[in-house]
Each structure stands twice: as structure tokens, then as C-alpha cells.
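Propose amino acids for all 133 sites.
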């Protein structure tokens, strides 16, 4: 993340996704807050994002889009409730990001099968690399 604007967009997207099932779970809030802290966003600025509209823009690099997709997938799993609206939304977000649907579906299946919903970065990237060959 290079600019403050990019950081705000990333967090806003995560916040919008966290409430797609109609409810913000405490674990989802805490997960997004941890990401905000890593990005150097203050608590006041973070809480203010819950009242703002989602900014528009496209993540340029494929690596950053993959990272954001994975953050959203982790967010989807952090409350231990896989809501159908979340699953539908993350697939649509991945398509809008220009990510390969086959790779994203495989990643989501692997995460669902994993005991803690986490897959290694190597596996994540290799699934996207497979699609390029």
C-alpha cells in the first residue's frame, strides 16, 4: 500500500464486505481493526470509515488484488459463519477484480476445508500462477 487513499479504499472494501450478511460480528470488526493498525490508521479514522461511502478505484497490480481477495476471504471465515451472501459477494468481488474464477473457487474450497481457514501464501500464489500457464 503506497498512499493513504489506497489504504482507506482497502479498509472500506473490507468493511463493506464484513456487513454483507447484514451483521457486523465482533471478530470481523477486530480482524479489520488489526489490518487498519498494520496500515497505520488511527482508531478515530477507522471508526469513521463505517459511516462513509465506499471509494471507487481499481487495484492495479495483480499481486495486490490477490492479497485483497485473500484478506476478504479471511474476513469471511473469521466469525466461523459462512453466510451464502458472503460467498456470493466474494465471488463477484473476485470477478470485478479481474481474478480468475477457477483459481478463486479453488482457494475458497481449500480455505473452507482447512481447520482454521488459512492456506499458505505459496499455495495461494501457485493457484493463480497455474491459471497463467
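Proposal:
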Amino acid at each position: 500500500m503506497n498512499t493513504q487513499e489506497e489504504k482507506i479504499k482497502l479498509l472500506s472494501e473490507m468493511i463493506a464486505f464484513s456487513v454483507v450478511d447484514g451483521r457486523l460480528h465482533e471478530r470481523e470488526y477486530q480482524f479489520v481493526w488489526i489490518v487498519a493498525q498494520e496500515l497505520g490508521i488511527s482508531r478515530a479514522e477507522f471508526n469513521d470509515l463505517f459511516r462513509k461511502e465506499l471509494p471507487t478505484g481499481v487495484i492495479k497490480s495483480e499481486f495486490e488484488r490477490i492479497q485483497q481477495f485473500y484478506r476478504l476471504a479471511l474476513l469471511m471465515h473469521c466469525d466461523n459463519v459462512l453466510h451464502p451472501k458472503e460467498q456470493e459477494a466474494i465471488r463477484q468481488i473476485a470477478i470485478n477484480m479481474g481474478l480468475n474464477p477457477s483459481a478463486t473457487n479453488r482457494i475458497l474450497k481449500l480455505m473452507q476445508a482447512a481447520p482454521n481457514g488459512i492456506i499458505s501464501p505459496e499455495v495461494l500464489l501457485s493457484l493463480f500462477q497455474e491459471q497463467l500457464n
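The chain has a mean pLDDT of 86. The first helix runs from residue 4 to 18.
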